[in-house]
Design goal:
The structure is a homodimer. In chain A, strands 1, 2, 3, 6, 7, 8, 15, 16 and 17 form a nine-stranded mixed β-sheet that branches. A four-stranded antiparallel β-sheet of chain A has the order 11-13-9-14. In chain A, helix 1 crosses helix 4 (123-139) and helix 13 crosses helix 15. The first copy, chain A, contains 15 helices and 18 strands. Chain A is an alpha+beta fold. Chain A has helices at residues 4-11, 13-24, 36-53, 123-139, 162-168, 170-173, 216-219, 226-235, 258-266, 272-276, 289-295, 335-349, 375-388, 402-411, 436-452, and strands at residues 56-61, 68-73, 82-88, 108-110, 113-115, 146-152, 177-180, 192-197, 199-208, 214-215, 298-307, 316-317, 320-329, 355-360, 368-369, 393-396, 415-418, 433-435. In chain A, a hairpin with a 6-residue loop joins strand 1 and strand 2 (68-73). Chain A has two domains: 4-197 and 367-452, 3-Layer(aba) Sandwich (Aminopeptidase); 199-253 and 297-360, Alpha-Beta Plaits (2-Layer Sandwich). Chains A and B meet through strand 10, helix 7, helix 8, helix 11 and strand 11 of A and strand 10, helix 7, helix 8, helix 11 and strand 11 of B. Strand 11 (298-307) of chain A pairs antiparallel with strand 11 (298-307) of chain B. Chains A, B: Pfam families: M20_dimer (PF07687), Peptidase_M20 (PF01546).
Chain lengths: 455, 455
């Protein structure tokens, strides 16, 4: 006889996907003040859904920024473990809009994929947990374990206020372990257990020269060009072998062991050239692209601008130029220290004739690693195999999820990173999407995992 | 008894300024297709004004781009010289609009200055010649010499089609000398004869990597960042001593003689630090700021952009980055060769992992120099003294006016560069303006010059 929970999920698939699409249609872009109302709307969606499916003590917990949605179901009985489920309802900006084939906030299904900003990161994946809880509660009338949810609205901007909230409400959020679905598989159809994440820090700096843009004929030869000065500063930060040149950047880094290099080599490699269109990969001298993305720190320029950007020519020496930088860190690197090393470097390499001003990114995050042999991690791998009919690989990912480091430091609990995204999801880019067969198979994985955790 | 011409100008000052303001209110931005209609409107303004004041054979001469306005008055009699008066009715873009205190196309007078895009460059100065011709024709019924006007609409974008037109209509435009008011004085109230101009060439290049923006956590460490690559290429083009590092850039340059260095030293120096707000000047090793701006070539980045430019953070490796470059050249440098040297340099310094594509700027210009002792040049200095009650200085300017080189090469005639702009005019910047007392004194200068040329 078919599992009642699975049957419920099959029968209510369309309905649940419709709810997900409603969730996806809200432009909850946390980084941009213009969308503040929409971010709030998304928080309310989550709150209402939790109310509908039978959670309790649901509340929008205010922060100085966007609220965190809390809810619990604690009726699993004596000795049952408590899981903290984390997700986020905010999304990345959608620009450049003109590169989207469909409206980023009008969810569209095409060739088995659901297209919308946030479909993969993270609304689709967060919603899967809620769908599974709904199925258990509507059929068995209970969940297999105690559940607390923490669904926030600032992940894309560094989860600036979450640490403080978790600290303040430590007892409310306390659990035996946490689970997060906000990551991806290394390849389509390749279940992937994330056992490590990179840390994160960043800043924005502006080089300024003359008070106003200047006529380049009249002033060229007397004035340090701020764009040139910015280019110079940036060029000193990494050498041509992708080795970061910022003093002390690598000082305390946990080295990449031979054992880990083998684990990395076992992971099916993405063919970057064909998948993303680059002529060839580049990586830090002495490391392969996979080793660098997974186990070595990075420094990237995310945006850079100054002067005339319109059509044609404008013969000016621009007044100023700005660059936005972020670093992904590995165990051993302290994000606050790294940020300060970046600042020192920028100040020391600013040429004469211009001034520099620096804006730090708010709260950053240390890197995270868990033992791949932990029972919960091993159960996650087993459940993955049930859902996807394939053995899981274990990887450390180049991305960062700030909350992971904080859960680790506040609660010291295992964190199961069970993601269902794929390399083709185009996170942070135009035409983000999530494959519906991963939605379906992931839900099966979660049903098995939540059931099996007790044993 | 007061000069009738001067009297006419005084009595019709308001009326003529009103006409100038009508001219200025037309957003004739040549570089941007959006304003094509307005550019045409400005051409028609000039045509109509010439008709009103009594010129003949007036026509809008079509080019592939914007038309050139031609008109003549050839009734000065046997042995009278013919002057070709050049000006332009197109203007620079006005952005960034939010930095203007008044609408760039709603001319406003404040503290003795007329504020509008084009007030100084070049509508105000071009109009002054028309105002003077009007005065002569309405009072004496004739002009003191034969006059042909050539007022074009593409100066701000390199006068791309003018050379061809002048070549094709060589006989129509033939004259004994030319006069151009499209430059400025080295200081307020300091009459300045320009005896040299710099040449010009440029290009735009784009560095591209992945087909789309990428998640910097997932792909950082495998991909060459196009912004970083662009910064690197730019940083190789000039060293920290402002010496251009592009091979062959300086090969054929006419060196700056001691005599010229003395002429330059005699020119009252602008206090760049106080006038434009830079912390200090920088110039090519071995040259002062004044020597570099006047007599040495320059390479400037006019615009640079790629990746996320909005509020806050976006953790991407951008798909591409673009920079716009222009060079000001001195005698001895061939603009087409220089452009090719730039292209070679960019190609040779493009790192692996990215591709580069280059877009050349259309027609460029060689530098120009005339003998400061030519009788016409000396007369211009005298007339300046009449108008401004101060002796003129002789300078070579950092700016370029493409037509100067072409008039030189097609007709081999002296070109009198008699400008009335000032360093505070803010050419090519927000809040461009032109001082009304220079409008008035410049008109007196032109009346004297046109009268005296016959003698």
């Amino acid at each position: 006889m078919k599992d009642a929970v699975i049957k419920y999920l099959e029968e209510h698939r369309d309905q649940q996907l419709e709810s997900l699409c409603t969730f996806l249609s809200i432009p909850s872009i946390s980084t941009d003040q213009k969308y503040q109302q929409n971010v709030s709307e998304a928080a309310h969606f989550v709150k209402q859904y939790l109310e509908q499916i039978g959670f309790e003590q649901i509340e929008l917990q205010d922060t100085v920024g966007h609220p965190v949605v809390y809810g619990e179901w604690l009726g699993a009985g004596e000795g049952a473990p408590t899981v903290l489920v984390y997700g986020h309802y905010d999304v990345q900006p959608a620009d450049p809009l003109e590169l989207w084939d469909s409206d980023p906030f009008k969810p569209t299904v095409k060739a088995g994929r659901l297209y919308a900003r946030g479909a993969s990161d993270d609304k689709g994946q967060t919603f899967m947990h809620l769908a599974v809880f709904e199925a258990f509660l509507k059929t068995e009338g209970k969940l297999p374990l105690n559940v607390k949810v923490c669904i926030e609205g600032e992940e894309e901007i560094g989860s600036e206020h979450l640490y403080e909230l978790l600290e303040q409400k430590k007892e409310q959020y306390r659990a035996d372990f946490a689970i997060i679905s906000d990551s991806g598989m290394v390849a389509n159809d390749q279940p992937t257990i994330l056992y490590g994440l990179k840390g994160f820090t960043g800043l924005e700096f502006t080089v300024s020269g003359p008070d106003n843009d200047l006529h380049s004929g009249l002033y060229g030869g007397a004035v340090k060009n701020p764009l040139m000065a910015l280019a110079h500063i940036l060029s000193t930060m990494k050498d041509e072998n992708e080795v970061v040149q910022v003093k002390h950047f690598y000082d305390q880094i946990e080295p990449l062991s031979d054992e880990e290099r083998q684990l990395i080599a076992d992971v099916p490699a993405e063919n970057y050239v064909s998948s993303i269109g680059i002529p060839e990969t580049v990586s830090e001298l002495g490391y392969t692209a996979a080793e660098h993305t997974m186990g070595r720190p990075t420094l990237e320029v995310n945006g850079m601008f100054g002067g005339y950007q319109g059509e044609g020519t404008k013969t000016i020496i621009p007044s100023y130029a700005t660059a936005k930088l972020t670093c992904r860190l590995v165990p051993g690197q302290n994000p606050v220290d790294i940020q300060n090393y970046l600042i020192d470097h920028i100040n020391q390499h600013t040429p004469k004739g211009v001034r520099v001003s620096i804006k730090k990114e708010p709260l950053s995050a240390k890197a995270y690693k868990v033992d791949p042999n932990h029972p919960l991690i091993k159960q996650a791998a087993k459940s993955y195999q049930i859902g996807f009919n394939k053995e899981a690989v274990f990887v450390r990912m180049g991305g960062s999820i700030p909350v992971v480091e904080w859960l680790d430091s506040i609660f010291n609990i295992p964190i199961v990173l069970l993601g269902f995204g794929t390399p083709d999801d185009r996170l942070h880019s135009p035409n983000e999407s999530f494959p519906l067969n991963n939605y379906d198979r992931g839900i099966l994985t979660l049903v098995d995992f939540y059931r099996s955790v007790l044993s």
